[in-house]
Structures are given as C-alpha cells and as structure tokens.
Amino acid sequence: MRSFLASLPFAALTFLCWGVYGPLLHTGGTGMGKSRLASFICVGLAYFVIAVIVPILLLQLRGEKGYWSISGTVWSLFAGSCGAIGALGIIMALGLGGKPLYVMPLVFGCAPVVNTIVSMWMTNTFKDARLMFFVGIVMVAAGAAGVMFFKPAHKPHAPEKAVATTAGEEHPEHDPPAKTVSAEMRTTAADLTINEFIPVLLSIGLTALCWGTYGSVLHKGQHLLGDSRLRALLCVGLAYLLIAVIVPFGLLKTVWPAPIAWEWWGAGFALAAGAAGAFGALGMILAFNFGGKPIFVMPMVFGCAPVVNTFVEMTAQKSFSQISIWFALSLLLVISGAATVLIFSPKPKKKPGGPAPAPAESRKPAPADSHVATSRDSKSFDDDDEESTADAASPVEKS
C-alpha cells in the first residue's frame, strides 16, 4: 500500500502530461503553416533535450548501474523509433482533419490492447487468455466505433460566420480568428468524406500500433542494458533525434519543401507537446521505480489520460454543449475496455528457480546483482504470488 501511494504522484504526472499532449500538438500545428513536419521537428527537439542531453549529463556526473550492450542498444533504439513514428502518426491524423477530442482517446484506448497482445506474443501466453480479456477488447472496439460515430461536430450556425466574412469585409489576413474558425470547420470529421477520413483512421492505427509496441520493446532493451534506465532513455532520445529532427529537416530542405510560418507561439506549443510526452514517459518510469505495480499504474494512466485530453480540448474549444450522451458513454466504454484488457491480461507465472531471467542477470556486475537482491528483500512485505504476477503483468514495469 505504501509503495502504491508513493507511485501515485508520478502516475498522475504521466496521465496529466499525456492528456495535454494532443491539444498542445494540435494548437502548435496551427502556427506552423501547412507543414506537418515542422511541429514534428519541435517534438524531436524537446525529446533531444530531455532524453539525450539530460541522461548524458547524469551518466557523466553520477553514473548508474548497468552496462552497454549491442543487443540492448538495438532494442532500445527500436523502441525509440516506435515512439517517434507514433508521434508522427498523431501529427498526420491531426493534420489530415482529425480532432484531439476523439483522436487521442482512440489512441489511448487501442494502444494498451496492442501492448498486451505484443507482450503475450513475446512471452508466449496466448493460451492463458481468459474471457474477460477478450471482453475488454470487444469493449474497446465497440467504444471506438461509438466515439467515431458520435463525435461532436460544429453547429450549422458556424458557416454563416464564414459567409459573412467573404460577402462583407474582405480582409482574411486582417482577421485571423475568422480564418482559424473556417479552418477548424473544414477539419471537423463531419465535413470529411470517407476517402478523406480513412487516412485519419490509418494514422490513428499507426500510432496505436507503434505506441502499443513501445513498452514491450523498451523493457527488453532496458533489461539487456543491465536494467539501466538512463541508457535506455538515451537510446530513445537518439532515435527521436534521427527520425523526428534530422530526417524531417532534410526532407523540408530537399524533396518535400513546404511553407513554414515558424510563429513563436506555434513552435512553443509544439515544443511543449514534446516536453509533455517526454515527461510523461519519465513519470511512468518513476512510478514503477517507487514501487507502483502495472496492474494499478497502467489502467490509471490509460484511463485518466483520455479524460484529461477530452476536458482540455472541450474547454479550449468551448464545445461542452456539442457533446452528446452517446459520445460520453462511448468514451467511457473505451476507457473501461482498456483498463479491463490491462487488468485481465495473461500473466506468466514465475517458475521457482527458472532459468529464464538468469542469462541477463548473470551478465550484470556484482554490485548490480546485490542491488537487485536488496530491492527484492525490501519488498518482502508484499504477497509472493502478487509480486510474481505484478512483475510479469506489463512489459514496462522496469521502464
């Protein structure tokens, strides 16, 4: 109980940061002209500072247990690539007309399902899946369909404003708010055709797939780096630097030029979105480090983040009156389904004296082994069965 309470502030940090990620990124993108890659670069720069410079300084100043290995570095870089490509998927979904009000809840609802399926594949526990696990998947699917079907749309009175602007005073550049309203009207899902909406759904699916894979892959990479959190985080930051900064910048300068406004407020919001994503990942690492168990932390994060996202977006757009009871119920169904999947996911039993973790543990230096033993002794007040179940409950427990 004490470890759970100690992890609560860090779990709250994660779902608050991830909850505001979508609205911040969407707002920042409106100040970047027509280039979606510009906000992607800002996200990558924020990750570079938080996930590259800071870990390097900490490793140089105080060090950390663990070691460098080729396999651990490759897996951690792959995890960072999944995170960066997932961030690009969010930017594409928002840039193609998706709204944070339903894009982010769909991502947060589907990513835990992908995460659990990937974990089951890596641990070979498909045969241990029970009925409630599949019920959770059905809940997420049904809720996601409801969120897309009942998503809020602008009221009919909005077009009058756009008509009045064109028929009356002709100064679109002089009146940026009207221009913004017109753009927002165009990018509502209600105005998108089926052919235009399919790329939005594909972008959401890409993000859910990448972010759902991220945790399992990062856990494996971190384990192969001697359970070094800073080394794994550094690899993630380097992957973001390559995929979200160097490659997009090269594309903007060569084969994919696009007008970039580079308004200071747009860049600021995009940088804030990247910082929110990085601090959210750090909060989850600290939540597990302070004794939080995935069976509590993960449902809390993936359940509360879409609520924060929806509240922030509705407050910013002043769209509380546009929310139907069916949209709210569908959103609740997505959140409940994601929590159900996480809670009832198959948990491989730790075999007493099993050789599975031995190879990675045996490669650790002696001080690291003694530290692991000490940390296990310090948790002796927990029930043994609960501890072994929690250890295998999620691939990000040691993240």
TrEMBL record:
> Which parts of this chain are annotated as the region Disordered?
347-399
Which controlled-vocabulary keywords does the entry list? Membrane, Transmembrane, Transmembrane helix
Membrane-spanning intervals of the chain: 38-61, 73-96, 102-122, 131-150, 197-218, 230-252, 264-288, 295-312, 324-344
- Biased-composition ranges, Low complexity, are 390-399
Reading the lineage from the top rank, the first entry is: Bacteria
The name this protein carries in UniProt is EamA-like transporter family protein
